[in-house]
Design goal:
Blueprint: H1 2-42, E1 46-51, H2 57-77, H3 84-93, H4 95-108, E2 115-124, E3 127-129, E4 132-134, E5 137-146, E6 153-159, E7 164-165, E8 168-169, H5 173-183, H6 186-193, H7 207-223
Parallel strand pairs: 1-5
Antiparallel strand pairs: 1-6, 2-5, 3-4, 7-8
Helix pairs in contact: 1-7, 2-4
């Protein structure tokens, strides 16, 4: 009787370990697939990132004023661009102009902050714009840092334009739908229409939540 109980416990342990191993492999594969999807999306778009001097209200308001001045100007210059490479060329050609635009806004508002502007790889969290959710990961972004750059930041998608309509800031779902479909594959487009942060959660087997998170972090580190 005792041997039978011991055998049953061992069998249960082996089955449990097999289940956990299989589950870890499946979760790992899913995160790897999502990482590859994110990379595919990142290769086709350019994001826009503005960082405020501080979290003081006047600095946050200034951040939005700089966002509007630069974003609206660049959306006009990029409206006829058909791919990311061409967008990069336009952005590089207008880098100094954008810096001067930002400095003028800052001066007009009564501040004397320095401005740093560059096109760089930046790590973004999951972010939703209107109906579209972009997965977390590294993206090329036009980044503007105002002053000390210690305040909350703002971000959107510069190419294809998802944030500016005519002479104002606006998340533009209808125009984004058309422009995104031109630059993304069908699978990638469906991906950004999904919502949430893609986490798999378990109500009772709570220890599996950490297993999922560990696998996710491992694959993110692998992709950097």
């Amino acid at each position: 009787m005792k041997l039978t109980i011991i055998k049953c416990k061992k069998d249960f342990l082996y089955i449990t370990l097999f289940f956990l191993f299989s589950f870890a492999c499946i979760i790992g594969l899913r995160y790897e697939q999502r990482l590859e999807m994110q990379k595919g999306i990142a290769e086709k778009i350019i994001r826009f990132h503005v960082i405020a001097n501080s979290d003081a209200k006047e600095d946050q308001d200034l951040k939005l004023a700089v966002r509007d001045a630069v974003g609206i100007h660049m959306s006009e210059l990029l409206k006829d661009v058909s791919d990311r490479s061409s967008s990069e060329i336009v952005i590089w050609k207008n880098m100094e102009n954008m810096k001067q635009t930002a400095k003028k806004v800052i001066a007009d508002k009564g501040f004397d902050y320095d401005v740093d502007i560059c096109l760089k790889e930046t790590d973004f969290p999951v972010k939703t714009y209107g109906a579209y959710t972009f997965p977390a990961g590294n993206y090329e972004a036009l980044e503007i840092i105002i002053g000390a750059g210690k305040g909350h930041n703002w971000w959107c998608v510069m190419y294809p334009n998802m944030c500016f309509s005519d002479t104002m800031y606006e998340v533009i779902d209808e125009d984004a739908k058309s422009s995104l479909k031109k630059v993304l594959s069908d699978d990638e487009y469906q991906k950004v229409l999904e919502s949430g942060d893609y986490k798999v959660r378990f109500r009772y087997l709570t220890f599996l939540n950490q297993l999922c998170e560990d696998n996710k972090n491992a694959y993110i580190e692998k992709g950097k």
